[in-house]
Specification:
Low-confidence stretches: none
Largest sheet: 8 strands, mixed
Distance between the termini: 67 Å
Mean pLDDT: 95
CATH superfamily of the largest domain: NAD(P)-binding Rossmann-like Domain
Helix content: 25-40%
Shape: globular
Oligomer: single chain
Number of domains: 2
CATH topology of the largest domain: Rossmann fold
Radius of gyration: 21 Å
CATH architecture of the largest domain: 3-Layer(aba) Sandwich
CATH class of the largest domain: Alpha Beta
Structural class: alpha/beta
Length: 421
């Protein structure tokens, strides 16, 4: 039987694209996908994918320098790899037309996910995209409609579904809490993310960037839908930020607090920021609490992590649960990347590969991975929150309080203002 090959390509080589996505694909090219299926709950597919070769054929970035650097990085992980660099404003076009991958991984900035996704769908190529799927509900709907018509998989990297601590909280504890009353979910990123790591912070906000992980968790595990939303935010630090890259400041929210009321009566406050001091002990500040009529559950990143204190560096909390390098037995200098950072990528690639190889039908495997359909309500919440927070900020500057909210009907929402009631 002829060797079966799934060709892969990646757009975007930033912090996550290079360090997590490309790193994970290196292991999959070297070892196949089967060693990594178990922690994603997909070990039943191991036999039918055991003989499949996965190969990265291309990477794309805005600049030639970064594209070639990605190839060099990947060659160090997979010495015999043959990866073509592409660059420019739309490097996905040349990748899709010349290298013809089966699966396109997308790690572009938040506001630039839709064009490469649609370009891939148009050519019958499957997609694994970084979160959020899109920032606008109209874009998400278009992606879903066209991917259904084309029969292509569109997966979203919602890796917190696979975090063993959070999964255990939702699966093992929450069902015992009785009627769910309220919750709080916090994820605060360091200041360097909004000021130096990402040049595109003005095109997004901290809730869209990381709050989407929390909204996905509650929707996925609890099967709840939003009915109303209230959001406020603060523009203090970043608006006044001045450096050589931002001479006029960074016009985005420092932090957002988004309160969502769900159809089962549960209220959750999502708190997100990207101005955490560099001196903070962890890479992020992350915690979640859910309170029910019979009890409560609390998960805190720092309390579950490994701590170290080094002269000149201070105290730090590490998160090997997300990503760790494990030395490969018998192969000096080689390591395998493990952690829940890889699991949702594997789940998306598994779905795409099985459809591409004719082992599964897109419609039949819906809901078995973080698909575009499951992202729809999350995108609705993101867009509504951005609009409500911006409107409330304008009311505040006029000394008129913060009276704006949103209400949902299905996946649609409408903005509620005093003059429009």
């Amino acid at each position: 039987m002829a060797k079966r090959t799934i060709k892969m390509a990646l757009i975007g080589g930033g912090m996550f694209g290079r360090g997590v996505v490309l790193r994970s694909l290196a292991d999959i090219e070297r070892c196949g996908i089967t060693p990594y299926l178990g922690t994603a709950g997909l070990d039943a597919h191991a036999r039918e994918l055991a003989d499949v070769h996965f190969q990265v054929v291309a990477v794309g970035e805005l600049s030639e320098k970064n594209a070639r650097s990605m190839v060099e990085t990947y060659s160090a992980w997979v010495p015999r790899s043959k990866v073509e660099p592409h660059w420019g404003e739309t490097p996905w076009d040349s990748i899709l037309d010349r290298d013809r991958p089966d699966v396109l991984f997308i790690a572009t900035p938040d506001h630039l996910h839709t064009p490469p996704i649609l370009a891939a769908i148009q050519r019958g190529v499957h997609v694994v995209a970084e979160k959020p799927l899109a920032l606008k509900l109209a874009d998400a709907r278009e992606i879903i409609a066209k991917s259904r018509e084309a029969g292509t998989v569109v997966a979203v990297d919602m890796h917190k579904r696979y975090d063993s601590f959070l999964r255990s909280a939702f699966v093992d504890v929450v069902p015992r809490l009785g009627d769910l009353l309220y919750g709080r979910a916090v994820l605060e990123e360091p200041l360097r993310v909004s000021t130096s790591v990402f040049k595109w912070a003005e095109h997004s906000n901290p809730f869209s960037y990381v709050g989407v992980h929390w909204t996905d968790l509650f929707a996925h595990y609890l099967k709840v839908r939003p009915v109303s939303l209230y959001a406020v935010g603060q523009k203090k630090l970043l608006a006044g930020w001045r450096d050589e890259n931002h001479p006029h400041g960074i016009n985005t929210f420092d932090a957002l607090q988004v309160s969502v009321q769900y159809d089962n009566g549960l209220n959750v406050q999502y708190v997100n920021a990207w101005i955490n001091p560099e001196e903070f002990e962890g890479a992020v500040n992350q915690e979640m609490e859910i309170i029910g009529s019979l009890g409560r559950v609390f998960v805190d990143q720092q309390d579950r992590g490994m701590r170290s204190t080094i002269i000149g560096d201070g105290s730090r909390t590490h998160n090997p649960h997300f990503q760790a390098e494990v030395p490969s037995a018998g192969r000096t200098g080689n390591c395998s990347c493990i952690g829940y950072c890889k699991d949702s990528l594997v789940a998306g690639l598994d779905a795409a590969a099985r459809v591409a190889l004719g082992l599964a039908d897109r419609a039949a495997i819906a809901g078995t991975y973080p698909d575009a359909e499951s992202a729809l309500s999350c995108v609705a919440i993101l867009e509504a929150a951005a609009e409500v927070a911006a409107a409330n900020d304008e009311y505040r500057t006029r000394g008129q309080g913060m009276p704006v909210s949103a209400r949902f009907k299905g996946d649609d929402f409408e903005i509620v203002e005093p003059s429009h009631v």
